Amino acid sequence: MAKCPLCGSSLDWAELINQMIEKGLNEETLKDREKFLASFRGFVFKCPHCGEEFYGRNLPEKEAEKVFELLNEFKGSIDWEKGKVRLRLNSLLALDTMLEKWDEKMRG
Ligand SMILES: [Zn+2]
Questions:
Q1: Hey, which CATH number is domain 13-102, 3.40.190.10, 3.40.50.880, 3.10.20.830, 3.40.50.1820?
Q2: Helix spans in the chain (H)
Q3: N or C terminus: fewer CB in 10 A for the chain?
Q4: For residue 79, which phi and psi values (nearest 5 degrees)?
Q5: What pTM was estimated for this model as a whole?
Q6: What is the pLDDT of residues 16-30, one digit of tens each?
């Protein structure tokens, strides 16, 4: 799971994406994988725990890719009027990782 590179606290992906929406992430960027990842890497996030700032590229990109997929997979995943993510991204990511491991086990 994503952690603050400065204080090590766990970060909530929904909260991180909310920060991007607040600073102008729009629907068009969210539909384009490369555009989204590029703006993610260069985005300056603020840790809600320690208040320090860091770039998105310090967070696990594999998770950012999953977040991109989840947000596009579910209709209404973002309330654009309120500028808030509706999905519980961390729970979905945890579930996804669990299924992947299970899948590996079954094949392995
Ligand atoms: Zn922090």
A1: 3.10.20.830
A2: 13-22, 27-31, 33-42, 61-73, 89-107
A3: C
A4: -90, 95
A5: 0.91
A6: 999 999 999 999 999
Tell me how far the alpha carbon of residue 11 lies from the centroid of ligand 1, in angstroms: 8
Phi, psi of 5, deg, nearest 5: -70, -10
Please report, for the chain, the start and end positions of each structural domain, with discontinuous segments joined by +: 13-102
Residue carrying the six token digits 């703006």: 39
Tokens of residue 15, six digits? 């909260």
Gap from CA of 45 to ligand 1 centroid (Å): 10
Cα–ligand 1 centroid distance for 101 (angstroms): 29
- Cβ atoms of 13 and 59 within 8 Å: the answer is no
Q: How far is the CA of 48 from the centre of ligand 1 (A)?
A: 7
